[in-house]
Amino acid sequence: MGLTFKPLFLAYSRTYVISFVAKPLPPMACLASRIPYGSLITKGRLERIAKAEEVIKKIANVKLVRVRDHGMIARIEVGRNERRKFYDKKIMDAVAQELMKLGYEYVVLDLRGYKSGSLDELLNKEHVIRFK
Prior knowledge:
Radius of gyration: 16 Å
Low-confidence stretches: 21-27
CATH architecture of the domain at 28-119: 2-Layer Sandwich
Number of helices: 3
Strand content: 5-15%
Largest sheet: 3 strands, mixed
Order of helices and strands: HHEEHE
Structural class: alpha+beta
Number of strands: 3
Helix content: 25-40%
Shape: globular
CATH topology of the domain at 28-119: Alpha-Beta Plaits
Strand order of the largest sheet: 1-2-3
CATH class of the domain at 28-119: Alpha Beta
């Protein structure tokens, strides 16, 4: 049985009085969609993801960004046409430094760029380490 997080988030927001911006915003997936299935979702983790995405938008001047939170690892996805902005060493260093301040140990760029539902790709794969 699947579980969607939007109803959970809306219930949480009503309970803890999270305010919403009045002006229309572009469609954006719930921050919980940045966390792999089976992982603990906490308020702190969601806030860290939101801060990380804002930092990247500001430093790299990108419009589309997702930070996939793999615990100690922040996997950055940006729009395919915006990946070139990370060719700049100053931008890479600044993003890494700021995300490490947020608690990530490793900061990586997904070379494929943004892909909707990228965490869904793992659902049907068998994760087995094989030794020969």
